[in-house]
Amino acid sequence: MPAPLLTRDEILARLLEVFRSRGYEGASMTLISKETGLGKASLYHHFPGGKDEMVAEVLKHVDGILEQFVIAPLTGAGAPEAKLNTMIKNIDQFYCGGEKGCVLDSLSIKAGSDASGIKLKEQMKAWIKAMESVSKESGCDAREARERAEEAMASIQGALVVARAIENKSVFQRALKRLPEQLLK
Amino acid sequence: MPAPLLTRDEILARLLEVFRSRGYEGASMTLISKETGLGKASLYHHFPGGKDEMVAEVLKHVDGILEQFVIAPLTGAGAPEAKLNTMIKNIDQFYCGGEKGCVLDSLSIKAGSDASGIKLKEQMKAWIKAMESVSKESGCDAREARERAEEAMASIQGALVVARAIENKSVFQRALKRLPEQLLK
DNA sequence: GTCTATATAATGATAGAC
DNA sequence: GTCTATCATTATATAGAC
Predict the structure, then answer these.
(1) Distance, in angstroms, between B16 CA and closest chain A CA?
(2) Which CA distances in Å does B60 have to B13, B39, B103, B122?
(3) pLDDT below 70 — which residues of chain A?
(4) CB–CB contact A104 B174 (8 Å)
């Protein structure tokens, strides 16, 4: 009985990288095997439901990242501007300064209204809601805070798309820099 | 010798829909056959190079759409605000008010630095450049116009991503509404 | 130019040894 | 828990009739 080569968290972290760079259909079992270093049989041992279960577990893993990098910083104590700056620093790191794409975008192509589609929707809404709350704290009324948060989410996602497409990370960096004025009154 | 069921332009229009909704890997020949109404053998008659050639031809077709809906309106005669409003009306129609995604995003997952990747990059740059020119016309200096245009591109792309993810087209509508103040001095 | 039928390759998934 | 070997299915692509 060989010892596990990777912890479950390490496996999920690598799966996340494969899915966000290749999408659902582009992430073949052969590629997943290569990128994780695990044989196909090992992967099916960990995820008997195959790719669908991998996606489901990766999205649960993303729940944790979202909580740690976005929700907790934004909903804790402190001044709105300071809390927002923490989130900005975190997502700059998570997206490698704009080099890497967002899994909520990559996986949304395959996702219809199935389980993963619902999950993706919930996660983006949770992110928006957290930004909405700091916007309210800064003095925006309910509707304005909501709209500013949705626009901020679009700025982040759009900057990632454009940065990848034209291979220029500065677009993402400027989007991050504009977030405070975009969200706070 | 049966008569052609579809014109080449109609075929390309349908292929564009398949690729922008499913991405490269998600668009299987079986699905493409279903969505275009053409048998696989017919598809290979029109595109001997298979899916790669389809993508290449679809992107050439997108050149025309881009020229007609974006480049020509923005670089022709007229006041910057009027020209921009024409583009906004055009892309609102092309993306069905935010219902449909952008093929430059959907296909960017498969595209590395191959031919299609280079083409996607060129097309998004051409779009940005056209918006940059109206920004300059409105009084922005070179650098500011460039940055505003990149941010406008990110606004459009991001709004499409968010609108699809949270199933709320109003995000895209508001992004369109903000484009004039975003681009023009 | 389109069709049916088929060849060939890659895919997701499993069995059984260790 | 991981491996090699293999299965069944689906994929891309082609041949040849009409």
Answers:
(1) 15
(2) 11, 23, 12, 12
(3) 1-3
(4) no
Considering the domain boundaries, does residue A3 fall inside one? no
Measure the CA–CA gap between A30 and A172, rounded to whole angstroms.
32
The domain that holds A119 is classified in CATH as: 1.10.357.10
**Number of domains forming the structure of chain B:** 1
Residue A28 lies in a domain: no
DSSP assignment letter at A181: H
Residue contact A150–B162, C-beta within 8 A: yes
CB pair distance less than 8 Å for B109 and A150: no
Is residue A46 in a domain?
no
Å from A44 (CA) to C12 (C1')? 10
Is there a domain that residue B84 lies in? yes
Q: What is the pLDDT of residues A81-108, one digit of tens each?
A: 999 999 999 999 999 999 999 999 999 9
State the burial class of residue B177 (Cβ atoms within 10 Å of its Cβ: 0-12, 13-18, 19+). exposed
Running DSSP on this structure, what letter comes out for residue B3? P
Q: Which residues of chain B have pLDDT under 50?
A: none
- pLDDT score recorded for residue A113: 79
* pLDDT per residue as tens digits for the range A23-39: 999 999 999 999 999 99
Burial of residue B131 (CB within 10 Å: 0-12, 13-18, 19+) is: buried
% of chain A exceeding 70 in pLDDT: 98
Domain span at residue B131 reads 59-183
Q: Best mutation site among B161, B167, B172 for testing chain A: the one with the most A CBs within 10 Å?
A: B161
Q: Which residues of B touch A101 (CB under 8 A)?
A: 109
| Phi-psi category of residue B158: left, alpha or beta, with phi > 0 → left and psi -120 to 50 → alpha | alpha
Two tokens at A150?
């949705």
Which residues of B in 26-85 have their CB below 7 Å from strand C's atoms?
A: 38-42, 45-46
